[in-house]
Each structure stands twice: as C-alpha cells, then as structure tokens.
Amino acid sequence: MTKLKICLISSHGGHLHELTKATDHVRGKKYFVTHKTPHTQQLLEDKTKYFVIDPHLSKWKYLLNTFQSLRHILLERPDVVISTGAGIVIPSMLICKIILGSKIIYIESAACVEKASKTGSFMYKYADLFLVQWPDMLHHYKKAVYVGLQ
Fold it and tell me: Which residue from 12, 54, 73, 143 puts its CA 20 to 30 A from 38's CA?
C-alpha cells in the first residue's frame, strides 16, 4: 500500500504550533512548508521541510512565494495539503488543488473565536474539508466541521 504524501503548511509561530499538534497522529509521508526563522529551523530540524517567503500582502512577495512553492510541489507532489493558515499558504494550496488535484484540509485557527480569518475565508471555497475549533465559527462557515479545540 502506498503512503499518502502530506504537505503540512502554515506560517510560523502559533499557526505552526497548532498544525504540528493537530497532525501528530496523522499517518503518511509528511513534510512541512513554512517561513524560515531560527525557531522553525530548530523545531523542524529532523523533519523534511521547505521554506517560503511570507508575502504579507505584497503582490511581489506573493509572486516569489508562488515560485518557491513550485519547488516543493514538483519535488513532493502531495496527495493532501493540511493547513492552519495564514497568507503564506495560499499559493501552495491553490497550485496543489488546481494542478495536482490534491485534497485540501484547512483548520481555522483557534485564535478565530468569533471572526473569520482572511485566509480561512479565502480558502473555504477550495477546501475539501474545513474544520473549525469554536462552535460560533459555524455561522461563518456553514459547511465546516466543528472539531473543538485540539
């Protein structure tokens, strides 16, 4: 049986912490994509990882992020992409969905208690499975699955 190839992608800090905790028991050949910081380098030291630039609302940086994302996508060809956001994830997730037909699982951040995130709102229409950690978030995402805090 072939193992699923799983791309775990998020920005650094709390998003990456949530992602690693949420996917601890996920089986498959996992690799990470995030922003390069001393903390992420140490946290992911013994894991397969790729670093992309954090575009932070810059069109030019989003373009650079897109080209950087192509590298890991062409090398790894993930079957599934799991993310907790933020904007750093959009190019990778869209390319994987549109070009490879990868399944997209988006986990709205636990920090989003009453208000939807910009990335979550954008990725909602592309996600095959959209998970929320607070029941009030179901008002924003009608087809989401409430999983509680993990």
Answer: 73
